[in-house]
Amino acid sequence: IQWFPGHMLETKNQLKSAIARVDALLEVVDARLPLSSSNPFLERIATGKNRIKILNKADIADPEATQAWLEYFNRDMKLPAAAICGTCLQDASRALQSMVSMVDRNKARKTKIMVVGIPNTGKSTILNTLAGRKVAKTGNVPAVTRHQQRTSLKDNIDIYDTPGILWPVIEPRQRGLALAASGAISDTAVDYHEIAHFAAQLLIERYPACLVERYPFLKPFPGEPQALIESVGKARGCLKKGGYVDFQKASQLIIRDLRSGRLGRISFETPKDINIDYDTDQ
Ligand code: GDP
After folding, report:
1. Both 24 and 119 in a single domain?
2. How far is the CA of 125 from the centre of ligand 1 (A)?
3. Which residue has the higher pLDDT, 165 or 18?
4. Interface TM-score (ipTM) > 0.85
5. Which of 161, 191, 220 is the last residue of a domain?
6. Do 79 and 205 fall within a single domain?
7. Are residues 44 and 143 in the same domain?
8. Taking residues 230-238, what's their average pLDDT?
9. Are 177 and 155 part of one and the same domain?
10. According to the model, what pLDDT value does residue 4 have?
11. DSSP state, residue 251
């Protein structure tokens, strides 16, 4: 989504100076789509900075895909990465500890850590878990200097939250569709039928067992997205006048099941999908 394009350059500069002021970066991405939920811009301005990539929402991601991503980041990209569930204190503390251990700490002063990531990856959730209380949620409006929020943790650690300064990049198409299917961007940003089509294709190709478990009526197993949406529509009573399947309703039902985890633990991309050139600048 191209939010506030006029402010984009200003925001980039603010982000740069905000990064310069902290000791380390805790980058939060969605474990189900770690690449599409990253912002390549961060890659460019965070070089040389202590950084850990947190693959959050690992509890609803495909464990095999998550393992492959961890190997990809840790081993191939030499970028420390950890998979966590943001509501789990043990997970969040472990990630914070590995972050802190990278920093050459002067115990006499505070260690400053900044949480970054596109909206909806779970930054506030992780912060709340670490703080043990509900920290006021920062909005998704770019406003680094004015509204950077500090949360003090034990052990002389301060965490800075940066409202909405990293935005999702919805090009190329596949990336936008993965973001939309995961719920990271609003459905209006991408054509709804295309999202449903993308989701159905993914489920048919990669998660047939999850489909059959959730929709046991799928016999024969659908070979293509339209057939899946139609079968679900028929079986779940998503019908229009005259008994025709309401594709909009049926699509919504599948996407709701997918986003909520009711279809099982599903990932939208694996390191094998990397042939797409994700390094799109804005
Ligand atoms: P932010 O915009 O990055 O601050 O994201 P939020 O913390 O507001 O989280 C966005 C949504 O993801 C919320 O509905 C959270 O409940 C959900 N969420 C956050 N972390 C996790 C997680 O580890 N697992 C699951 N299943 N959901 C999560």
Report:
1. yes
2. 6
3. 18
4. yes
5. 161
6. no
7. yes
8. 96
9. no
10. 46
11. H
On the question of pLDDT at 32 being above 90, the answer is: yes
Statement to judge: residues 145 and 29 lie in one domain: yes
CB distance 121 to 29 below 8 Å: yes
Cα–Cα distance measured from residue 144 to residue 158, given in angstroms and rounded to the nearest whole number: 16
Q: Which tens digit of pLDDT belongs to each residue from 77-97?
A: 999 999 999 999 999 999 999
- Asked if residue 279 belongs to a domain, the reply is no
Rounded mean pLDDT of 133-162? 75
Whether the CB of 121 sits within 6 Å of ligand 1: yes
Tell me: pLDDT of 175 over 70: yes
Q: Is the dihedral of CA 28, 172, 8, 143 positive or negative?
A: negative
Number of domains in the chain: 2
Q: Do residues 31 and 66 touch, judged by C-beta distance below 8 A? A: yes
- For the chain, the first-to-last Cα distance in angstroms comes to 11
User: DSSP labels for 106-165?
Assistant: -TTSPEEEEEE-STTSSHHHHHHHHHTS-PPPP-SS--HHHH-EEEEETTTEEEEE-TT-
Residue-range definition of the domain harbouring residue 98 = 5-161
112 and 34 within one domain: yes
Domain limit, last residue, from 114, 140, 161: 161
246 pocket-lining for ligand 1 (C-beta < 6 Å): no
Please work out whether the CB of residue 122 comes within 6 Å of at least one atom of ligand 1. yes
CB-count exposure of residue 183 (10 Å: 0-12, 13-18, 19+): middle
Give the Å distance between the CA of 121 and the centre of ligand 1.
Answer: 6
Tokens read off for 109: 């002063």
- Specify whether 21 is located in the same domain as 68: yes
